[in-house]
Specification:
The protein has 319 residues and is of the alpha+beta class. The protein has helices at 12-24, 53-58, 60-68, 70-76, 117-120, 158-166, 175-182, 200-204, 215-218, 246-263, 272-278, 298-315; strands at 47-51, 91-99, 104-111, 129-132, 135-140, 143-149, 152-156, 190-195, 223-230, 234-242, 282-286, 289-297. It is built from twelve helices and twelve strands. The longest helix has 18 residues, at 246-263. It starts with 11 loop residues before the first helix and ends with a helix.
């Protein structure tokens, strides 16, 4: 593989480090938006996700977690693979863009410092290259990597990355995507924007019968925006859904409120910690938009980490 990560494999401590990192990568504090996060997107993307890794690692929430669990911090100082010196702390941000209908995607990794090919591509893969203008593609199996500049990596299927690098202009965007993308609040550590045309049919199959949602109602959902920010003691998560009209937005809010009320009942079969988190969920409707937000207390996250560590330790066989 071009870029192998060790942090996502191994024993319970290592698996937990990955889980904790993922948790923080889906919720954190104020951030700096990357310039042109969709510059290297495939044409007609319907999903873009931006994760400001360096800001997450520097956030008060993550500092608290690593202070209580030093083993997590140690994993962040370990190389991402056996053939590289890069560590998670060398990552500034990660941007993922995708055309889900065509299964095209590009992952862009922005680093905090300059790197060379020898830092990111294993020696056995350095001979399998293609030149596209000023760029060199390194290809291994079904993935291609390009060092776009001294601190920017792009990873994608070979055909997708070829098309992106051969393109003379920015990515083609649908009118719906372009309009929604302009309104995304990029002052976040994590934000995701999606147009839902290709995704709604997949979601429709997963909705249980009796929920009162028809295919026509779901089809009115046009875009979704997710963001996450961490403060000193809590993580704030927000989602905005464009429901086409106020009537549909109100219908989804009513359904959400009903579901939440059911989950709060004493006989609801969900963990007490989840019930506690659900008490902070709030929703509101403004014109055709439904906004859903909730706060996740840092004490709850730390409790879950302790529980995961205890479970991992008890599952580890003794010699």
């Amino acid at each position: 593989m071009l870029f192998q990560s060790r942090i996502y494999s191994g024993g319970p401590a290592r698996r937990f480090a990955a889980a904790a990192a993922l948790c923080l990568l889906t919720a954190a504090g104020s951030a700096r938006a990357e310039d042109g996060p969709i510059a290297l997107a495939p044409n007609n993307p319907d999903v873009v996700a931006v994760v400001q890794v360096a800001d997450i690692l520097a956030s008060p929430a993550f500092q608290k977690i690593t202070a209580d669990f030093p083993e997590i911090g140690k994993k962040l100082d370990e190389p991402l693979g056996e053939k590289t010196k890069l560590t998670p702390r060398d990552i500034e941000s990660i941007v993922v863009t995708a055309d889900t209908a065509q299964r095209d995607f590009v992952v862009v990794i922005n680093l905090t410092g300059e790197v060379g090919v020898e830092d990111i591509v294993e020696e056995k893969d350095r001979d399998n290259t293609e030149t596209i203008g000023d760029y060199t593609l390194y290809i291994a199996e079904d993935k291609a990597l390009c060092l776009v500049d001294e601190s920017t990596l792009a990873i994608a299927p070979p055909a997708t990355l070829r098309a992106v690098l051969q393109r003379d202009d920015d990515a083609e965007l649908s009118a719906e995507f372009a309009a929604g993308w302009k309104n995304v609040d990029d002052d976040q550590q994590v934000y995701v924007f999606a147009t839902l045309g290709a995704l709604i049919p997949l979601a429709a199959d997963a909705i249980p019968p009796g929920m009162g949602l028809t295919a026509d109602t779901l089809a009115k959902l046009t875009t979704a925006t997710f963001s996450a920010n961490a403060g000193e003691n809590q993580i704030t998560i927000s989602t905005d859904l464009n429901c086409t009209d106020k009537e549909t937005a109100t219908q989804f809010k009513t359904l959400l409120d009903t579901v939440l009320q059911g989950l709060q009942q004493p006989n609801a079969q969900i963990p007490a910690e989840a019930k506690q988190a659900l008490t902070s969920v709030q929703s509101s409707v403004s014109e055709e938009f439904l906004t859903i937000g909730f706060d996740l207390g840092l004490d709850l996250i730390l409790g879950q980490i302790k529980s995961q560590l205890a479970t991992g330790a008890s599952a580890t066989p003794t010699p």
